[in-house]
Amino acid sequence: MINENEQKLYDILNTLKIEYSRYEHKPIYTIEEANQLDICIPGEHCKNLFIRNRKGDVHYLVLLDQDKKVDLKLLSKQIGCTSLSFASKERLYKYLGLEPGSVTPFGLINDTNKEVQILIDKDLVNASKISFHPNVNTATISISYIDLEKFIKWCGNKITPICIE
């Protein structure tokens, strides 16, 4: 069953003429659980991390390949920011309208003040297809990287490429 937050996303993707494939599955909360699904979802599978600076007045959504790990100290130096930490579930809901386990760039449709900055690992740029939750953790959608960028630009949030080794 598609909830309101998920349907809102599909309406926007259709308006933007962004093609996507939808795959329904049981609720998953981690990359490990996603890898145990008995379905083949095409494209790069991504890890999405919602973080904040020390003062809590700047928020970032980090998009990277599922197999990479982020060193927050190195990332803070790379983007010229104070120390970084994971944001609370309350902040996740306040800024992106999402629950833990469903973190995705598609939550930007709920960031009406354009406060969340997107940090995209440069290795994702070359992906033909890329997969994310559609604002719920009971489905995954696959879209082209070009269309992901089109969506983020439509939302109006700042995008910064980063290098995660």
Task: Explain this structure.
This protein has 165 residues and is α/β, with parallel strands linked by helices. The protein is built from five helices and eight strands, in the order αβαββαβαβββαβ.
Structural key phrases:
eight-stranded mixed β-sheet; 27% helix; 8 strands; 165 residues; 5 helices; alpha/beta
Portion of residues in beta strands equals 25-35%
Oligomer: single chain
Count helical runs: 5
- Helix content range of the residues, please? 25-40%
> What sort of overall outline do the alpha carbons produce when their principal axes are compared?
globular
* Global mean pLDDT: 93
Main beta-sheet annotation:
8 strands, mixed
The helix/strand series, from N terminus to C terminus, equals HEHEEHEHEEEHE
Distance between the termini: 38 Å
Number of strands: 8
Instruction: Report the uncertain regions.
Output: none
